[in-house]
């Protein structure tokens, strides 16, 4: 995560290098990545330090999806590569028309189309579901020694289970962060967003995001989950490997909350430790009705 002031300073330098105006830039979202609205329907994305390869891949995926007739947010044509600004990659995109956030049913048909595509001829990399988790556990300042050791063992157990994942759908291109918020719905169509985690992997990983929203978070209703399964054509929760992917996703979002709690205990400690207690089996069966952090 970065502050709005730090992100804006990087934005000014990136716009100067790209020949774009940063006058009256408006923050859209400041988080691990920062989005800024510029003049002339342009959006700048300021990435995290060290994420150059992910930014390059994101641009390549967005352009490739358009050649496959899958609606996707579009980068500016004349800026083919990210700009490196003090180690942070900055990319520029066409702003979408007026839209609403997507739902589970909106993303399902787009996921099905992505999963049916051939593997592209540029490097995608393999899904890495455990990236940064060990560091987040080590740096979680609100944990005591016993909690930290439990999480380390839980991570090791999930890694072992991942290595023995049962057979499922054929490996394909996956979005990697497939939830309704990464779809923008206009009156004409639905656009996919955010390809930072797009890779090769099990299609079930994309489907598990919505299944966990339904079964763990309690944010996806029974009706919306049924609509998602119908639109995609499968229910991932009936697959033998689903509990493994579910547990990994629950661990990921717990570690994400712990990262926020370390930075701002007053706001986020309660939710982070509620999540930890849930995955430790202290709060009864799912759904646990977790509250969004960020």
Provide a descriptive summary of the structure in words.
- The chain is α+β, with helices and mostly antiparallel strands.
- It folds into two domains: 4-95, Phosphorylase Kinase, domain 1 (2-Layer Sandwich), CATH 3.30.200; 104-279, Aminoglycoside 3'-phosphotransferase, Chain: A, domain 2 (Alpha-Beta Complex), CATH 3.90.1200.
- It is built from nine helices and ten strands.
- Helix 6 crosses helix 8 (242-263).
Low-pLDDT runs: none
> What CATH architecture of the largest domain would you give?
Alpha-Beta Complex
What is the structural class? alpha+beta
Q: Average pLDDT across residues?
A: 95
Radius of gyration from the alpha-carbon trace, in angstroms: 19 Å
Topology of this protein?
Blueprint (H helix, E strand, L loop, with lengths): L3 H15 L7 E5 L3 E5 L3 E5 L5 H16 L15 E3 L2 E7 L5 E2 L2 H12 L17 H6 L6 H19 L8 E3 L8 E3 L4 E3 L6 E3 L1 H15 L4 H11 L9 H22 L1 H15 L15
Antiparallel strand pairs: 1-2, 2-3, 3-5, 4-5, 6-8, 7-10, 8-9
What's the short version?
The chain has 294 residues and is α+β, with helices and mostly antiparallel strands.
